[in-house]
Design a protein that fits this description.
26 helices; three-stranded antiparallel β-sheet; 36% helix; 960 residues; alpha+beta
Amino acid sequence: MALFNDHWIDDHQFLSISYEGAAPATQVDLWVHDPAIGALALDWDLSPDSHHLSRWYIESSRELFNHGKSAFLSGDALLLRSSLHKKNNDSERFLLLGDRIINGDAKWGNTTPQFGEISFIDGYWEWLEDVLARNKDMLTSAKIYDAVFASLFTYVRNTNLIRSFCELWCPSTNSLHVPIGEVSISLWDLRQTGGLSIDGIFYDEVVPSARELTGVDKKDVPLLPPSCKYLFLAYRKIYCASEASSVTVHDWVKFWFKEDPRYKQPPARVQKKRLGEPRTSNNPTGFIGEKKLRSKDTEKVFDDLGVEKDVKEETNLAALLSCWLCIFVLPNKEVDQIRPGVFKVASMMAQGKRFSLAVPVLASIYHGLREITSSPNPSKCGAAFPIHYVYGWLGRYYDSYFLSAPTKFECGARMVRLAGEKKAKHFSFQEACDLLKSITPSTLSLLALGKPQQGIVTDHGKHSDSWNDYIISLRSSYLTLRRSNEHIVEPYSPHRFARQFRFCQDIPGKLREELSTGTLEAIYQLWESCTRLNTRADFMIPSHSSEGLTTKEYVEWWEKSSSNFCGDKLACEKPKSPLAAAKGKNIITFRTTKSKLATEVTPPSSKSKEKEVTKAVTKESKKAAVVNPKTPLSIPASKPKPIVSKASEPMGENKKRTNIVLSEGSSSDKGECHWKRSKKKAADSDSRLKEKVTVSDLAKLDYNLDGILDDLPKTSNHVELENQFVSDEREGSVDGPDPFDLALRSKHNFVSGAIHLPSTSKPSTSKPPMLGHVALSTVTAFDTGSMINHGRLLAAKMYDSNIKSILGKTPFEKLTSLKPKLQVIYAEFSKLELDYSPLQTQVEKYIQNTTNYVSMRSNFASGMTSEVKERRLADVDTKRGQLMEELDQLDLEAKKLREALEGIDAQRAQKQHGVATLQEEQAVLEATEVMKPADMEVANNLEQLLKSELEEIQNLAWLD
């Protein structure tokens, strides 16, 4: 018989676990702490505090800065407020880990730190698949099915990317500092990427007392779920059988799950460049089949612990959740150990209780990053937190992983798309820094919820789970984590990264009070304030099409306050480069690659120093780009500094590399190019593109149409929707299309040639059409027909590419306005004697489909507000009640009819028996040769009776 007792040692309470008659050495003592939840929780006065505002937004007329267009404009700014900060425009520079490393105050060690990264556990995946198949309804009730499902895979990282992330993370603001300002991991990000609930019960990781573990209330209901005590008994059994002073997760899984393992440990991680998603993986497929019968060995585990039959499933689920909490949700510095403090929470989850997990998880992430960025040797600081959620965040905002198709997993945790042992892309340290600094404002708000039109949402506590969680995510607060006697407090300041919620970014101000820990009462008070609902506060929700801008004051403040390591500052004026567009005009630029610019030539006889190849691209004003085959590519005189570009290998016998040198001092014979024509002079003063373009510049340029679609606004990248072009200016509402996938698509999915719709699983890697090679002349014949055809082809490809680019960047609502301008382009196709009907058909179909989509979206969004949903649900409930009453009435009538039919069947059987008897008597009489008159009369009577009986039987059959 198991014994649970409370005893005290040096003013500390302990839970003693033993068995009756067992040796004293087998007794296990666990430190007990005061509970914050449950029947024995301390009673605190949770009075309203100053952390809540009646209105969490400000509207004011300000001068705004559009980073995408590098321009200032005047307009109404929608700002997110904070209750934790005071106004402060001081420009003291932030200090990042990158600055400390440059100054010599910190350095990375030679070891590769894990920081709490989950490792392979033999048997865990098989056990988890079994639990998911058996307990989907209970996990869904606890709002953790998606979060538990996400632990079914391996999550890896590029070491250079994580180091760069840490060096740009600011511990004083809990945000990532990049050239455009601050971005960060929000509570809403954790909900969307990790499936973690924000609202729920306080996460209280403590060992309960024996009184709480075995006690019952006044109604004889256990104070804790029965499964909780079996978890402690299993812990004692494993602890006593182990030589170590702890219970590892490997021992825990091996104790509970006795089935044969199917998955092997993934191979060691190899950091190398890959061009695409790996074809093979040692991870599970994610398919959850039907539940299977347990083996006798597994059943024996429950029998040995004395688990009652009706709580076996609950106990098995609680055991799995205990492991999940320790290794995946909230790992600590002993990442491979089971902590008994999680048993209480796990057993309550196994009964369907919903816990607020996003709050302690984000507190753990902030705290872990603070430890890393404040340490003189980050590799050895020993920080441990659920870093795989950071990987999920990076995969959401950056192109840092090879992503699986959105339809591969039926899971709301979007981080599963980057799961796999080979999914992390390879970056050098400099490439990783450049990637993190390359984020643009247009990619920040794709997870944000919105409305068709900007509107106010009042916190009355009756919204859907999604909107309640979103409201909590918008408020400034203190995040808390309680693990036994460890109390962690971290400030949460969503107004510092308000653009992620489609708000305008303003100077954040200074934190009023720095908190890092506190008493249990203070910790619980801060958590309750963070997650409180029904505050009656108002929130302004920006529209779906809103793009977060910044105020002019913020631009100036960030210029003075941002770290030197952060990189380039925000530009306060328009670019001075000639490549910048004039007002109301577009630019035609040509995209190419280094290898295509390299030219094949015969090596020169004399050795010369390497010089760079310079080229400039000219463009006619107010016309669409058409390549004229009769005009060679002009190469204007360059500046005194030449540019060197290595040529590719010739295709002939001589494969030596060489260089082409085109500089200002070249003689007239060297200034010639194809067909020995003399080099043209630089474009005249009316030309809008005179700048020298190097190889690296050309690789960054894109196509645009000059003057044809000049009234269109510049929008963000394009994506695909149902095999059609789609602008990413879509709603991120709860009921709308999923915005997560939009941020993870390639920015250039459209290719040259005929319109090929991109696949939904992988972004297109095709490149735009390129200009021909520049090579020394070897032409012996001048084929004008071939040249003209080639020019037509280049022009057609250029038009095709630009049409698709413009369509992808144009908001759905303005696509129909492009039809007259598209006709102008079709006319140019006609002049080139090219068949443009397939392109025209697809473009018109695309415009029609997007028009239908906008209409449906508008109708859906306008008709499915939370109030309308509630009304419709009420109507459905009313109609359902009426239908149930009608169904009961029909059942009653059907029962009466069945009883009547049974009586009719009995009468019919009786009549049929009588008829058979009469027929036998008639047959006997007919067999008599001489019949008496009396007998004849009897026979006639029998015949008449037989006829009447037959008629009655027919009537009964008709009724039946």
